[in-house]
Description:
The chain is α/β, with parallel strands linked by helices. It contains 13 helices and five strands.
Amino acid sequence: MPDKIFFQSSLPRVGSTVFQNLMNQDPRFYASSTSGMLELIYAARHNYTESPEFRAQDADTMAKAFFGFCREGIHGYYNAITDKQYIIDKSRGHFAHYGFINSFYPDPKIICLVRHLPDIIASMEKIFRQNLHKSSPFVNHTKMQGTTTPKRVDIWFNSPPVGLAIERLGEAMRQGIDKKMLFIKYESLCLHPESEMKRVYDYLGIEPFQNDFNNIPQTTKEDDEVYGFSGLHTIRPSLEMKPSDAKDVLGRDVYDWIMNNYKWYNEYFGYNR
């Protein structure tokens, strides 16, 4: 049984995959690909709530039983996968369901990577343009939906994965959950990897590990075709901070729209124009 299970719950296109692979350099850790573990527990919650077999019994007893099921379920999930001492489970839903997770796994440690929003959207747009030979859920020419960069950006900010993740992040801040999380800026991870990884280990309460930031083998495996686009979870073998091309990719008007409409995000994380 792992000593501790930690959680990574980040925005899209922020280096969350490379972070997991950095953690996998540490032989004490198993850092997952995008995980469905939370989905299993969440589905069990529905059955616990709706099934008459549970509702017909003593509510306090059944609550204890369900929380025990969830707690042992996540341990059983990873016992079947690895014998590593520590786990980092990656799912975009962790901080959105902090209260639920906290009910059966008290005081969960959640790491969240963030990035300059125009760069997130520019990364999404570049992947879209690289996959023009495939049909896309973002574009519907009959309805003139997603047919231009501004229209696609609007869709991304009002749907998964970007929009939902940002909405959930804003709600976590309203509830004060952000004070219990560790935020890592993608830019800081690339420019100051040693100090940022030290922050990670300090937050987790574990003796630091000396990473090799110039040789990062990809240990996480995902079939990106499942998500509709290739190249979503392929990492470069070294950390490097490339100059932002968001203004060129999106256009100055779209760039300014993002900056003006998400001032709360920019102020919280210290991003400027």
